[in-house]
Write a structure and sequence with these properties.
The protein contains 3 helices and no strands. It has helices at residues 10-39, 53-65, 81-89.
Length: 108
């Protein structure tokens, strides 16, 4: 071993990194846990027992009252057939040819 070399314990450093970054990843893990547990509520959750038929009816009734977590929000600058027609009829204010509007998609 060289003189002046400090033996740095990497296991201790790993625990320090986990402790310092915990405020960032613990809320995320908690939210994912609740989301998965809620999605599996009709089957009893992650570690729960299977619900009785009466509990299952109540769970389904509660689900109907809840707001759907999957929300479809349109793009702010998205192209739709209506906006593409409006864009093509307006005159270009810039110099040179007007850029052709690109349709949103995977291979655009």
């Amino acid at each position: 071993m060289e003189q002046g070399f400090i033996d740095f314990n990497t296991e201790f450093a790993r625990y320090i990194v986990i402790a310092v970054t915990a405020p960032y990843w613990i809320p995320f893990i908690r939210k994912v846990w609740h989301e998965v547990d809620d999605a599996l509520r009709e089957e009893g959750g992650i570690f729960g027992r299977s619900p009785t038929p009466m509990e299952l009816i109540e769970i389904r009734r509660q689900r109907l009252l809840e707001e759907d977590p999957l929300v479809n929000e349109p793009y702010v600058r998205g192209y739709s057939p209506a906006t593409m027609k409006k864009d093509s009829s307006t005159p270009s204010t810039g110099t040179g040819p007007a850029p052709t509007p690109r349709r949103p998609g995977f291979r655009s």
